[in-house]
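Sanity check. The docking grid for adenosine monophosphate depends on where the pocket ends up, so I'm generating a full predicted complex first rather than guessing from homology. Inputs follow.
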Amino acid sequence: MLVNNMRVITGIKDMRSVSKEARMSGKTVGLVPTMGFLHEGHLSLIRAAAGECGFVAVSVFVNPTQFGEGEDLESYPRDLERDTGLAEEAGADVVFAPGVEEMYPDGAGTVVHAPPGLTGVLCGRSRPGHFTGVATVVLKLFNIVAPDRAYFGRKDAQQCAVVKRMVRDLDVPVEIKVMPVVREKDGLAMSSRNTYLSPEGRSTARAVHKALRKAEEMVCSGILSADEVKAGMYKILNKAEGLEVEYIEIVDPETMEARSDAGANALIAVAARVGGTRLIDNILVSSEQWMVSDRRRGVGNDE
Ligand code: AMP
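Predicted complex below; grid placement will be based on this.
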């Protein structure tokens, strides 16, 4: 099927053979899994894939098994026609948009459980079963497309950790690429769910990024105690009327284990609700920031 000149594949068999053809002709196969309603965050992944792979498949599938009861499965925004146009512009070769019946012909049977240490914290605490749904659908997509590389956004840092662990533990032959968070001009992390925000909520939502900027500032000025950084962030978020903090965590980005410091390679992650909309965002402390902190504290300073 062609939508906007873009080949849209809905069948698993077709997707498998198109991907195989690309591989047989010597192309590197890239996969960008999405739930659609594409925005610049998704497009940055597609562009990265197109820059590194000869063939890029973008999956658009609102995966029911990763939604909990009472979550927004029904109302999740969908617009396949718009998505295909955007995916094509960004360099995708095909869009894989299977129906639920195609992906789960007998309902959700066999599933992938990532270790509870990874999935029972942060978002997993309020969304039990979510990461099982994610890991299962991602493994299915890997088995269907058989990509050499798959691209994920660090905005969903816990998802990245779960997928990386699954690939490692189950020996899936794919390279996982984690790309930076893409934000609106005022700092709000792009998300298909931002469309749920009222104008007032949209303005309140900026506090999430403000809190992360505050954390960055604190780390850069040498304040590395996780408790102190979190307290600084809570101060900002608690002032935002209509915003309810779900968590602020400072963790190792691979294991999701809590850290007592916000030094090099610490993931500082936030989840909050504004109105009915759940927002997540994070920053990763780089070794440069750590060095800046060290220098200011006079540690590791050779001068
Ligand atoms: P979704 O459609 O929300 O499931 O997201 C599909 C992929 O796009 C996931 O790997 C997300 O992490 C990534 N993504 C979503 N929003 C952003 C963003 N603002 N910046 C970078 N990547 C993103």
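Relevant for the grid: Residues 34-35, 41-42, 44-45, 152-153, 155-156, 179, 181-182, 189-192 surround adenosine monophosphate (CB under 6 Å).
Also worth noting: Strands lie at 2-3, 6-9, 29-34, 55-60, 94-96, 149-153, 175-179, 243-251, 267-274, 277-284.
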